Amino acid sequence: MLEMRIQMVGTGSAFAKRYFNNNALIEGDGCRFMLDCGVTGPTALHKAGITFGELDGLLISHIHADHVGGVEEYAFQMKFIYGRKPLLYVPEPLIETLWENTLRGGLQQEESQTLDSYFQVVPLMEGKETDIGPGISVEMIRTRHMPGKASFSFLLNGRFFYSADMVFDRPLLEQLDERGIEIIFHDCQLHPPGQVHATLEELLTLPERIQEKIRLMHYGDDMEQFIGSTGRMSFVEQNRIYSLD
Ligand SMILES: O=c1ccn([C@@H]2O[C@@H]3COP(=O)(O)O[C@H]3[C@H]2O)c(=O)[nH]1
Ligand SMILES: [Zn+2]
Ligand SMILES: [Zn+2]
């Protein structure tokens, strides 16, 4: 099995100012993808010393600005600076709204232009494992976030779970544990009420065996005050490279 690595270019919540938006870089055998590209994504990538031209593509979890607000710049840079269309892996139910409601206003210059004018769009289907590059496969799992809003978490290489923004879902976390998933990166709302994210309080009700697998991300600016109060869970550090093998 080849090594896969993940580096969060940002670990912050939508409103965090000390941390960039919760966006990741995942790296396989000679390939590199960004997982979500929010408003701060282009700057966060730049600070990590990487250009858009070095990426093979992008995966999208759901349509909120801290996850897709930087996609317009990515598209324009790839067209006008690098002259190629990157891969864009999007959960199939999000494709239309990503173009019509998020990107079209900025990217469409002529009526005939669509998402395909900028990207090699690959729809991701629920429950189907897709190889996105050498050493990386993804399976998207629909998870609950805001009522009525489609949002998708990812299972990478069948052993690493990366939550999109999601509410606390004990049965899913138990199922992942039973399936032998070894590492879970989970978004976390440090201060209740959670409303659209799992709260730290809720995650602390999980058995220690599951907590040990969980690394917390998508946190607020006062994260450091919670170090030592997260049970068996730990915080994902912005920019640190985690090896997933
Ligand atoms: O019912 C709601 C809907 C939204 N919100 C906030 O808006 C943010 C949008 O981005 P996000 O999904 O990363 O996080 C969300 C929350 O911080 C909320 O607190 N309650
Ligand atoms: Zn978010
Ligand atoms: Zn969200």
TrEMBL record:
InterPro entries: Metallo-B-lactamas, RibonucZ/Hydroxyglut_hydro. Residues 20-218 form the Metallo-beta-lactamase domain. It comes from the Bacteria. GO terms for molecular function: hydrolase activity; metal ion binding. It catalyses: 3',5'-cyclic UMP + H2O = UMP + H(+); 3',5'-cyclic CMP + H2O = CMP + H(+). SUPFAM superfamilies: Metallo-hydrolase/oxidoreductase. Counteracts the endogenous Pycsar antiviral defense system. Phosphodiesterase that enables metal-dependent hydrolysis of host cyclic nucleotide Pycsar defense signals such as cCMP and cUMP. This is Beta-lactamase.
